[in-house]
Specification:
By secondary structure, the protein is mainly alpha-helical. The protein has two domains: about 25-75, no CATH class; about 75-155. It is about 70% helix and about 5% strand. The protein contains five helices and two strands, in the order E-E-H-H-H-H-H. The chain is flat. About 0% of the residues are buried.
Length: about 160
């Protein structure tokens, strides 16, 4: 039974306890609080750091799944060849990024000539680096072939 005089309810032991006030006095403030929470979560999830983390997770997951698939569908020597080739590819991309792309993007707004000359110079350096990489890989493949390495490694 409810005691209407002092807003108290009786308990099982017969004692009277005070009725608790709701956390939100009305539904508008509850909805506003939930809306604020969702807005804060959206701001956190759509931030630059969250997008970078998601990008890294996708790239790393794809790399891992590729390695697992190659490991399952081929033998151990082919997986080793893939791992070596992948590390060489990543090393050459890192060298190209640090030697050509990063200086170009840093000097983009203050080129040491016209912007077209600056972009052309960076393009020429990228082509030269690609040609050098192709020559190095060709010479390495010829040396491995002469040295009697397996055909899968030479390829």
């Amino acid at each position: 039974m409810l005691d209407h005089r002092n807003n108290r309810t009786p308990t099982a032991a017969g004692a009277v306890s005070a009725r608790r006030a709701p956390v939100f006095p009305d539904m508008r403030s509850a909805r506003a609080e939930v809306s604020k929470i969702w807005r804060d979560l959206w701001r956190l999830a759509s931030g630059t750091h969250a997008l970078a983390l998601a990008d890294q997770a996708v790239v790393s997951g794809a790399s891992f799944l590729t390695t697992v698939m190659i490991g399952r569908w081929t033998n151990a020597s082919e997986l080793g060849t893939y791992a070596i080739a992948y590390s060489i590819l990543l090393s050459s991309l890192a060298a190209q990024e640090s030697l050509i792309s990063l200086p170009y993007s840093i000097q983009r707004h203050r080129p040491p000539g016209t912007p077209a000359e600056h972009a052309g110079g960076s393009l020429a350096l990228s082509g030269l680096m690609s040609a050098t990489g192709a020559i190095v890989l060709t010479v390495t493949a010829l040396a491995l072939s002469i040295g009697g390495a397996g055909p899968e490694l030479v390829t």
